Amino acid sequence: MINIQFYSLLRLLLKREKFELPAVVNETVGQLLQRLQQQLATPFLQKLLDDQGTPIPGTIIMVNRRNIHHLEQLETQVQDGDVVALFPPGAGG
Amino acid sequence: MPAAERYNRQILHWGQKRQQRLETATVLIAGVGGLGATVGQLLVRAGIGKLYLVDTGRIDWPDLNRQLLYTEADIGQTKLEVARQTLQQINANVKIELLPTRIDHTFQAPADVAIIADCLDNYTSRFDLEAGLSTDSFLVHGGIEGDQGQVLTLQKGKSQSLADIFTGTRQPPDVIPVTGAGATILAGFMVNELFNTIFGQPQLLNRFLIVGLSDLHLTFLDV
What we know:
The complex is a heterodimer of chains A (93) and B (223). Chain A is of the alpha+beta class and 93 residues long. Helix content of chain A is 18%, strand content 22%. The longest helix of chain B has 19 residues, at 180-198. Chain B is 33% helix and 21% strand. Chain B has a single domain, classed as 3-Layer(aba) Sandwich (Rossmann fold). Chain B has helices spanning 3-6, 8-14, 16-23, 36-46, 79-90, 123-131, 162-165, 180-198, and strands at residues 26-30, 50-54, 95-99, 115-118, 138-145, 148-155, 207-212, 217-222. Classes of the chains: A alpha+beta (93), B alpha/beta (223). The interface between A and B is medium-sized, with 26 and 42 residues.
């Protein structure tokens, strides 16, 4: 299974802290998020991706503690046991 | 006033040895606004040895809902001067050094600073602050936006960098909403973690504490 964790405003929007999906061979983070949206009652991808499917600045997407910007972005492959975290941090101080 | 009497309530909690450690500790507070004004006040009340305060701002009306060191009479004054005056009135034993400088790519933390409170309000300055720290320094980061906030401790050179973790984030184009209660709660969590770090036991090292104020939710995210 892949453990997808929602933080901050995404947790409030989706009314859940996490969701598990079975791993699919050769699946990427981008594909995983599309599959996740199909499973959830509340659309949320518009908060993460623009019309071209590019990540919108504002939410950190991490795979096993690493920001996907330092991996293969949305093409980062995920596999069984991975933890994907979606976190829109607070910017003010 | 003897220190044993002044700090009696907290010495009952954490003991004399930790109090002495606190009184010899130095912390740099970057940004003396919503988070930093309260972080500074709580550290001074606890008897921190020395504080560096970094800010270039002047006090304005929108600051007064949450920046607890400032009053209407201070409008237009520099935050650093008013902060120092108020903090020294609270506790004259604390050494306070002012650094009225913008935090940019040239910033270098003073050599005697090993613990830094990131109370800034924008990512660019946060990344420049982190870059200007010496290896092994502890950075206690805080951020807040509306009713959501986070605290995280990183150790320079050993943790992932703040810049790496926050890659892809963007400063919101509009003014960031912040309430007095929210800023004070997050500042309290930051100070608690600063104490833990001074005492050699940071609890949020490489671990976000993410605070949801609307439904009083606390959760962790390891990085």
